[in-house]
UniProtKB/TrEMBL annotation, chain A:
Organism in which the protein naturally occurs: Saccharomonospora amisosensis
SUPFAM superfamilies attached to this UniProt entry: PurS-like
Major subcellular location class: cytoplasm
Swiss-Prot/TrEMBL keywords: ATP-binding, Cytoplasm, Ligase, Nucleotide-binding, Purine biosynthesis
GO cellular component, one term: cytoplasm
Source organism superkingdom: Bacteria
Assembly mode: Part of the FGAM synthase complex composed of 1 PurL, 1 PurQ and 2 PurS subunits.
Pathway per the UniProt entry: Purine metabolism; IMP biosynthesis via de novo pathway; 5-amino-1-(5-phospho-D-ribosyl)imidazole from N(2)-formyl-N(1)-(5-phospho-D-ribosyl)glycinamide: step 1/2
EC number: 6.3.5.3
Gene Ontology terms describing biological process: 'de novo' IMP biosynthetic process
Family per record: Belongs to the PurS family.
Protein name (Swiss-Prot/TrEMBL): Phosphoribosylformylglycinamidine synthase subunit PurS
Automatic annotation (TrEMBL), chain B:
Catalytic activity: L-glutamine + H2O = L-glutamate + NH4(+); N(2)-formyl-N(1)-(5-phospho-beta-D-ribosyl)glycinamide + L-glutamine + ATP + H2O = 2-formamido-N(1)-(5-O-phospho-beta-D-ribosyl)acetamidine + L-glutamate + ADP + phosphate + H(+)
PROSITE patterns tied to this protein: GATASE_TYPE_1
Organism: Saccharomonospora amisosensis
Biological process annotations from GO: 'de novo' IMP biosynthetic process
Name by which UniProt lists this protein: Phosphoribosylformylglycinamidine synthase subunit PurQ
EC nos: 6.3.5.3, 3.5.1.2
UniProt keyword Calcium present: no
Record-annotated active site: 87 (nucleophile), 196, 198
GO cellular component: cytoplasm
Gene name for this UniProt entry: purQ
Oligomeric form and interacting partners: Part of the FGAM synthase complex composed of 1 PurL, 1 PurQ and 2 PurS subunits.
Sorted UniProt keywords: ATP-binding, Cytoplasm, Glutamine amidotransferase, Hydrolase, Ligase, Nucleotide-binding, Purine biosynthesis
Length: 79, 229
């Protein structure tokens, strides 16, 4: 078994209004100096050893992320 | 025989009944299609209606795109079956790769619910021949993730090939690139739009009956011309 983490982020050129809303709130909360926030998604998958990297890439690119608007990374965390 | 237009119901679909009513009002037979059933029941066209398929989990339309019925719709659409995607249906068609681009969160983060003027930019698609080119129509818009985005090459291609079918008139309600409200496939048989023509088929219950033109257009295309003997 391994834990696999897939992080999905909006592409830099895609407007991220959620991130902007968070960035806009920070100064109101008294936190200054944060110039940009981007909000994405974090998936944690428990997979058995039969799942190879190619399959994980297909899961990430074909389903968890939409490559039109998002970038993704896959990494295995050995347990 | 009247044209048979299938209307898909996913878990979370809201507007299948209105879509079926609009199809019937324009003279078609509305045929219910079930998300878990790959059988298209021999329909002549398909409407993928609005709502929140599978709760819009992951991304709008991302899970619905893999429903058994969509596998059949994708195959049939690539073979020329006319398909109309409305709101969540538009998002599903983009996720399925039948239409380019994607729909993202409205730029001001608010869910928009209003009667929206649209301009008909292309009246040669299967779903828009009943409109005059440049006509302005009043159609309800109700969506939180209605901002159309695509890379610049795709936008240039859509504009250059006349595949922008509807454009928002007046203030852009959701940050869509180029004020795009709806687009079509290269052959004009597949159309997706965020506003809801099926909610504008009768002035009693909608802001206008401007939406009917889309369904009449499809019926025109689907009903074979009968030559009197």
């Amino acid at each position: 078994m391994a834990r696999v983490v897939v992080d999905v982020m909006p592409k830099p050129e895609i407007l991220d209004p959620q991130g902007q809303a968070v960035a806009g709130a920070l100064p109101r909360l008294g936190f200054n100096g944060v110039t940009e926030v981007r909000q994405g998604k974090h998936f944690e998958l428990e997979v058995d050893d039969s799942v190879d990297d190619e399959t994980l890439a297909k899961i990430a690119e074909g389903f968890l992320a939409n490559p039109v608007i998002e970038e993704w990374t896959v990494r295995r965390i050995e347990q | 025989m009247s044209a048979r237009i299938g209307v898909i119901t996913f878990p979370g679909t809201l507007d299948d009944v209105d879509a079926a009513r609009a199809a019937a009002r324009s003279g078609a037979e509305a045929v219910p299609l079930w998300h878990g059933d790959a059988d298209l029941k021999g329909v002549d066209a398909v409407i993928v209606p609005g709502g929140f398929s599978y709760g819009d989990y992951l991304r709008c339309g991302a899970i619905a795109r893999f429903a058994p019925v969509m596998s059949s719709v994708i195959d049939a659409a690539r073979g020329g079956l006319p398909v109309l995607g409305i709101c969540n249906g538009f998002q599903i068609l983009c996720e399925a790769g039948l239409l380019p681009g994607a729909l993202v969160r409205n730029d001001k983060l608010h869910f928009v619910c209003k009667d929206q003027w649209l301009r008909v930019e292309n009246n040669s698609t299967t779903w828009t021949t009943r409109y005059e080119h440049g006509a302005e129509v009043l159609i309800p818009l109700k969506s939180g993730e209605g901002g159309y985005v695509a890379d610049q090459d795709t936008l240039d291609r859509l504009e250059g090939d006349g595949r922008v079918v509807f454009r928002y008139v007046g203030e852009n309600p959701n940050g869509s690139r180029n004020d795009i409200a709806g687009i079509s496939s290269a052959d004009g048989r597949i159309v997706g739009l965020m506003p809801h023509p099926e909610h504008a088929i009768d002035a009693l219950t909608g802001p206008s009956d401007d939406g009917l033109g889309m369904f009449y257009s499809a019926v025109d295309a689907l009903t074979p011309l009968v030559t009197p003997a």
